[in-house]
Amino acid sequence: MNDQAVIHIAVMTMIVSAKVAGPILVMSLAIGLGVSILQSITQIQEVTLTFVPKLVGVALVIVLTGNWMLNQLVGFTRELFQLIPGLIAG
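Below the sequence we write its predicted structure tokens.
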């Protein structure tokens, strides 16, 4: 196992992690920003107000994109398993 193989696996891991976590993080950020703007307009300073909308938004994203996320993770895992013989031999 050489340095290039380790760097390649690390880069692939970061890319797959960003692709899988991205939709959830974007939805959570958008809902948080929207609720914060609403709070600043209405001057309601309740910290727990963002929890339920974020929970519903993240659940909706997981329902809509969960199959795609799972396919990405399974494909990445299969690719890692296919790399094992080359990493052991080289």
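The first helix runs from residue 3 to 42.
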